[in-house]
Automatic annotation (TrEMBL):
This is F0F1-type ATP synthase beta subunit. It comes from the Bacteria. Gene3D superfamilies: P-loop containing nucleotide triphosphate hydrolases. It comes from Peribacillus deserti.
Amino acid sequence: MADLAECRLDELIIRAEKVDMIETGIKILDVFAPLAAGGTVGLIARPGMGQLVVLAEMFYRLKQKGFTIVLLKPEGNPPEIYDLLDEVDIAVNSIKEA
């Protein structure tokens, strides 16, 4: 991930004390990919690695905590995305639309 972000591994760790973190309840995300309140999050994985399952579970848990879920749909509308739409409050096609 550090290579993709073109930075050192220690630069990926959030160190600010005043950043509010969102606990998903999914331990691997909360430890290795913490969500910062007000931030933008992206999941990077090869196809078939289960990222949509993790995303659906994260959406479900965050909705239970009262968060609004906005999904930026990928180009081409892959059919797997439709499984996530039950957990999404707002689905958009572009950043401008969001």
